[in-house]
Amino acid sequence: MTDCFKFKHNLIVARIAPAKLLYADTSRSADMLYFGRFSVPDPFIAIELRGKKIAILNALEFGRAKKSSGFDTVLALEPWLEKARARHPNAKIGVAEVIGLLAGHYKTRAFEVANDFPLGLADRLRELGLKLTTVTALFPEREIKTPAEIAALREGNRCSALGIGAAERLLHKSKIKAGLLMLDGRPLTSERLKTAIEIACLEAGALSVDTIAAGGDQACDPHERGFGPLRANELIIVDVFPRVTATGYHGDMTRTFLKGRASEAQSHLVAAVRTAQLAALEVIRTGVNGRHVHQQCLNTFERHGFETKRTPSGSVGFFHGTGHGLGLDVHESPRMSSVDYVLKKGSVVTVEPGLYYPGLGGCRIEDVVQVTATKPKLLSEFHYDWEIR
C-alpha cells in the first residue's frame, strides 16, 4: 500500500475523547477499511484510543498488518486468547472476552460503536461490564474527502466510464431485426451488456457488482438490474458503480441509450433529465441545503410537464433522491433529497435525476462531483450522446 492511501487523522484528540471499537471485516465495513487502510476478509478487533489505532489479528494476518496497515499498534490474537482462557476458565472464550481484557489493559470501560455493530457481541460485552454507545457516524470525517481520496474516486469513475463504453459499443454493433437488437446472430440481452460492462471494469482493476442494464419498462424500476432481450427504439439505462480493488473506492455513473429512432416523447424525456441535472449542478455549493438542490430538479420536471405520482402499480415520474455521497461505500453521506442536509466543502456527491413512465420508458443521467465554495468539481467523464442509429 502506498503512502498516498494511508489515512492521516489530523485531529486534536482530547484526553476525554471516547474510545472507538470496531469488530468487522473490510469487505463489508467501510469504517474498518477507512480506519486501518488494510484489507482483511474476516472480522477482527480494532480500537481507537487516545488518538492511537490498535488492531488485534490472528497469525494469518499479523505479519502483513505489521508491514502494510495503517495501525499504530498490531497485537497478536493468540496470546490474548490464552489470557482470556486463564481469566475465564469455565467459560467459552470468544471475541467479547478478548475485548474485555483489552479494555482492562488500556484502562477504559466505555466505547463508541457504529449502529451496525453486532448485537450479540454488544450484549456479551455489556454482561462483562463494558459500556457501549452507538453513534450514527463512527468516523464523521469520512464525509470530507482528501486529495488522495479524490484521486481514488476519479479512478473509480474512470472504470465506470469504461464499463459504460463497453455497453455502448455493443449497442452500436447490434442490428435491428423484428424489433429486437441482434448481435452475432443472437439477441442482445441485458445479461450480455452487463457481462461486457463487468469484464471492462475487471480489466481496469475494479469489481462491478449489481450492474444495471435495463431497457423499456424494466428501467422504470430504478434498481432493476435488467434481464432478457433488449428492443429497438426503447430507452436503456446503464448504471455502473464499481469498486476499485486497490483502494476500495467506488465510481458511480449512469447513462441512458436508445438503439434505433427515438420518439418525440422520448427525446423530450431525456432532454428534461439532462436539463434537471444541469440545474442541480448550477446550485451545488458549500453551505447549500441538499433539499434545495433536489428542488431544482423537481421544478425543472414540473416546467417540462412531467408529473410525479403514486399509482396502484408503483410510482411514476421522479421519485428518488437527486444524489448521495460516494466513497468507500457506494451510498454514504451526504444526501440530496427531500431531507434537509447542508453540503460541506470537500464532500462528494452523485447528481442523478431521473424520470420513469411505464409505456414510455425510463431515463437517468448520473455524474459525480466534489462540493466546493464555487462551481462543483466534476469527477466523472463520459459523453451525453444517447441515440444510436
Q: How would you characterize this protein structure?
A:
The protein has 389 residues and is of the alpha+beta class. The chain folds into two domains: 140 residues, Creatine Amidinohydrolase, Chain A, domain 1 (3-Layer(aba) Sandwich); 245 residues, Alpha-Beta Complex (Creatine Amidinohydrolase), CATH 3.90.230.10. It has a six-stranded mixed beta sheet, with helices on both faces. β2 and β3 form a beta hairpin. The two termini are 46 Å apart.
CATH topology of the largest domain: Creatine Amidinohydrolase
Helix and strand content put the structural class at alpha+beta
Count the beta strands.
24
Considering the protein shown, what is the CATH homologous superfamily of the largest domain? Creatinase/methionine aminopeptidase superfamily
Helix content range: 25-40%
Task: Give the number of helices.
Answer: 9
Given this structure, which CATH class of the largest domain is correct? Alpha Beta
N→C terminal distance: 46 Å
Secondary structure: elements and pairs:
Blueprint (H helix, E strand, L loop, with lengths): L18 E6 L5 H7 L7 E6 L2 E6 L1 H10 L4 E4 H11 L7 H11 L4 E5 L4 H9 L3 E5 L11 H27 L1 E3 L2 E4 L2 E2 L2 H14 L2 E2 L4 E4 L19 E6 L2 E2 L8 E7 L4 H20 L6 H14 L5 E3 L2 E3 L6 E3 L6 E5 L11 E4 L2 E4 L3 E4 L2 E4 L6 E2 L8 E2 L1
Parallel strand pairs: 1-5, 3-4, 5-6, 14-24
Antiparallel strand pairs: 1-2, 2-3, 7-8, 8-9, 10-13, 11-12, 12-14, 15-16, 17-18, 19-22, 20-21, 22-23
